[in-house]
Amino acid sequence: MHHAHRVVRPTGPLARLALLACLGLLGLAACRRSPPDPKARARQTIAQLEAAVEAQDLGAIKALIAPGYHDNHSNDRAGALRYLQLRFLKRQAIHAFVREADLHLRSDGVAEADLLVAVASTALPDVAAIERLNAAVYRMTLTLTPDGDALQVSAATWHRAGLGDLLD
Known about the structure:
The protein is an alpha+beta fold and about 170 residues long. It contains six helices and five strands; from the N terminus they run αααβαββαββα.
């Protein structure tokens, strides 16, 4: 069943936090050995990004944002890091629930991950918690570019989504 999605330009602090949550999830990827399977490597990177955001580890996040990073809301690497630092200072806790909608590998080693991400200040163990807490939900596409044995986020697009998107 296909649902028409209305694209809304996210403007609130949770919108940017969701984007930066995905970026932050990459933070720990540099510290771990990459799996040999390219899809497993991309999935591991996304899981590590989630952990880094929840740990609010800005240094680990920075290591995996490509110098040429850009997104569909005019952020570059420095702007994304500044915003994330501000959000970390303002929030005691950040929790993300990440669901992979699609993962595409290109022949040049670049991975494009289409994700649904919910963000809240309380743990989000499942979709029921997302609904109960009225967490912000976003659809994101991350471009993960090889950098040696690691992957770096080189581009991102994102917009507000609904709880129904997580259920599809």
